[in-house]
Amino acid sequence: MKKMFAVKVEEGREGRDGLPSVGPVYRNLLAHHHFPPIDPHLSTAWEIFRASVEKYPGNRMLGWRPFLDHKKWGPYAWKTYEEVYGETLCAGSALRAQGIQPGARVGIYGSNCPQWIVAMEACSSQSLICVPLYDTLGPGAVDFIIDHADIDFVFVQDKKVKELLRCKHARRLRSMVCFTSMTEEEKDGAASVGLKSYSWNDFVRMGKENPSDLLPPQPFNICTIMYTSGTSGNPKGVILTHENISTCIRGVDIFMEQFEDKMTVNDVYISFLPLAHILDRMIEEYFFHKGASVGYYHGDISEIQDDLMELKPTFLAGVPRVFERVHEGVLKALEELNPVRRKIFGMLYNYKLNWMKRGYKQKHASPIADLLAFRKVKARLGGRIRLIVSGGAPLGSEVEEFLRVTSCAFVLQGYGLTETCGLTSLGFPDEMCLIGTVGSAFVYNEIRLEEVPEMGYYPLGDRPRGEICVRGKMAFAGYYKNPELTRETIRDGWFHTGDIGEMSENGVITIIDRKKNLIKLSQGEYVAVEYLEKVYCVSPTIEDIWVYGDSFKSMLIAVVVPHEENTVKWARQNGYQDSFSGLCSLNQLQDLILQELRSTAERNKLRGFEHIKAIILEPQPFELQADLMTPTLKKKRDQLLKRYKGEIEGLYEKLSGVKR
């Protein structure tokens, strides 16, 4: 009998009267009969922060690396909980001195840093609504949010001041505070649009000289309007209340109580995912709740290895692409070893994996393998990692297994959206049967699948599949100023995620598709392009792929970013000496990749209309090109279409035999 990870609390039912079929309702095992009670003394984000300040005043809270004169980043400097609280009170008082009233929206625009958190907590202290602006959204979306959210006041990183002032709606702003200080040119630019500007130190000083009483929020008050970048159209403003935030934190507490290893005040998190994204925001909120430490990367993701070695974090969270690069880095290092050492690594890997599959915890499965081989993998991550969490998109099974075996840490995969406060479901440590899944319903959620007839997904069959729907205490309050979208998304109390899942008999969910990335070809066939991209991306010469279909065409095409190292290796073996960019223009490379795509399609038994018929080779990764990816590295399909429109039209004309 399979081990259960969730409990069925309601049976499914067949569709009737035009309504779709729905699968059984599942809850977390810890919420079998009802959701656990919330702590009445920690019912808002502000109460949680303030309680931690009282309990852990001298603990290190926020860390950053000062830039040294000789073009190097220094060791981490720290502010304690007490110091951050004092600065927060001053910033909150300064906001009041500006005439800002409770319920007003305050923007925060910039990379992760201590000032970001102080600004966020200052909003909570005065019942203001924090509106994060994605650092990588670009001025178009930032301009939209300033206007849509009625923002009058904004905290901004020094590097983003010019971008902010270029926004059409910058004129509606009354004041802005720079995380550090501004140049005279930037001050003049702000003044020219009627905008008061302050350096960080001046603003904090203003609050110190004009102290105000706290105006703490109620649980039902809005904590944040978090705009999701999405993959098309304008961002959507997700309304999250203080109750949403505090419920999520309480849920993590309850979830963690099950396990032998506990989080302590000595744990350290390295923050590099955008703070404007729900995953990083909730992780930091939880670390603050536990009196632990958060250290910020210095801003260049390509040099994060240096930050890892300096900070030596115990907790690492990232999107799948981050962990794919860790995996690729280790495999590349293995290739440089002599054959004997490589073989020994493989033997130790299989030995430890075998014991883990038998039910042994990773730390007990093979201490000798950890000592001889895997401690070096752990060392690449700073040497102290205890927990790794992947979110934002499904993590490949091969990469997840590799991390579970070699990282010497707990590895969890979770699933969530901004609309569910970042946690819809969560896996369990040391459960190898959960590899490739996103675990079971989180503590304060209920989950069920709903039929998607146009895609052939049915939630009451032998393999229940359908759109994942969520209900519970962590679901958002709605989309800001968008009641139509709210009604479309929340039906009968259930939030419809747009993600397609498969539910196992023990309540475990696997993400298999995306409803919104469904396209219809000219013959009427529906194609799930995101699923196809996951299938095709396993080809050794493919680094990334964007699959495209036109509803007036019968064939799929794709833009492929070749895997540089494997492509160069193939080229040298076949006598080509061009640069990587030059290789991408070779017909021979196109033919090779098309053949690999055909083989992959046949191996995975894809239907004929799911085969890729033609490709465009792109040497530059999508994430390095402006506005083609969201901050969580999901493809912006409308932007990709704009970028490659001319080449796509040329490919289709070539396929149909029409000359230009």
Automatic annotation (TrEMBL):
Please give one Gene Ontology molecular function term for this protein: ATP binding
Q: Does the keyword Amino-acid biosynthesis apply?
A: no
One GO term (biological process): phenylpropanoid metabolic process
Q: Does the keyword Cell cycle apply?
A: no
Its keywords, alphabetically, are: ATP-binding, Fatty acid metabolism, Ligase, Lipid metabolism, Nucleotide-binding, Phenylpropanoid metabolism
**SUPFAM superfamilies, alphabetically?**
Acetyl-CoA synthetase-like (SSF56801)
Class of enzymatic activity (EC top level): ligase
GO CC terms: endoplasmic reticulum; membrane
Query: According to the lineage, what is the superkingdom?
Result: Eukaryota
Start and end of every AMP-dependent synthetase/ligase domain? 50-480
Q: Which pathway is recorded for this entry? A: Phytoalexin biosynthesis; 3,4',5-trihydroxystilbene biosynthesis; 3,4',5-trihydroxystilbene from trans-4-coumarate: step 1/2
Q: EC?
A: 6.2.1.3
**Reaction it catalyzes:** a long-chain fatty acid + ATP + CoA = a long-chain fatty acyl-CoA + AMP + diphosphate
Q: Which Gene3D superfamilies match?
A: N-terminal domain of ligase-like (3.40.50.12780)
Family affiliation: Belongs to the ATP-dependent AMP-binding enzyme family.
What job does this protein perform? Answer: Catalyzes the conversion of long-chain fatty acids to their active form acyl-CoAs for both synthesis of cellular lipids, and degradation via beta-oxidation.
Write down what this protein is called: Long-chain-fatty-acid--CoA ligase
Q: What is the lineage of its organism?
A: Eukaryota, Viridiplantae, Streptophyta, Embryophyta, Tracheophyta
Q: Which gene is this protein's source?
A: LOC113718905
